[in-house]
4-hydroxy-tetrahydrodipicolinate synthase (Pedobacter flavus), 291 residues
Amino acid sequence: MLNLQGTGVAAVTPFNENGEVDFPALENLINHLIDGGIEYIVSLGTTGETATLTAQEKQDIWKFTSEKVAGRVPLIAGIGGNNTLEIGKQMASFNIEGYDAILSVSPYYNKPTQEGIYQHYKYLSEHSKLPIILYNVPGRTGSNMLADTTIRLANDFKNIIAIKEASANFDQFNQIMRDKPAHFSLISGDDPITLQMMSMGAIGVISVVGNALPRQFSTMVRLCLSGKFAEAATIHASLIEFTRLLFAEGNPAGVKSALKILGVCEDYVRLPLVKASKELENSISAILNDN
């Protein structure tokens, strides 16, 4: 079984000034994350600006990431969307070399019913060569996958192994933890409440903030896993303002600004996203310089 305990990071996709994928910077990022002590990497989650990447760019990024990670940590591919048949086709043809699981976001824009969400993931589970991690993020998709649907999927399909939950709905988290089967895990998809979710039984996080501060965030998460919540809370408190700033003008503009300041990669994003404002960049820089 894939061990998803700890800190996974939804890696950004670095671009150069011409708007092309910056592969040397991507290698820098990979090494920055692994050297920072994170437990696994998600390649091309939604933080990776997948909506603006071509099919060929995605293939190139997945291959490059697998080669540079070289088995040092587990690797998860983000493959999701709102065209069920197309996503199923992508999963069936995906080159799994170097990859351990797939993170698949709940369908966005269509606003399917709970039965539609269930049937979507049922289809994907039947076409994926790898275990699937569900991803519920209502703020981006426009629909919430209810706890009953999550539990139904977890019970019906053994290759659906976890959910990245970003609904910020603690009642929903309670229901998942109470009713989930033993093989199924709850993972935080919301950096600011990772500590709180782990106190309820979540096994870790798939983080955005971890791109910039992998050591601090992964240390906090490991303390939570060890039951040392008082020590973890000190790190959590120190990250509150930094986390707020990273999301103040959208994701991944904020975290790319931080990565630029840290010398990991440039802060270019693809339209319709724009770079963080100079004011926000200065605020992020002030906090990084204090640490």
Summary: The mean pLDDT is 97. The longest strand covers residues 160-165. The first helix runs from residue 23 to 35. The two ends are 37 Å apart (CA to CA).
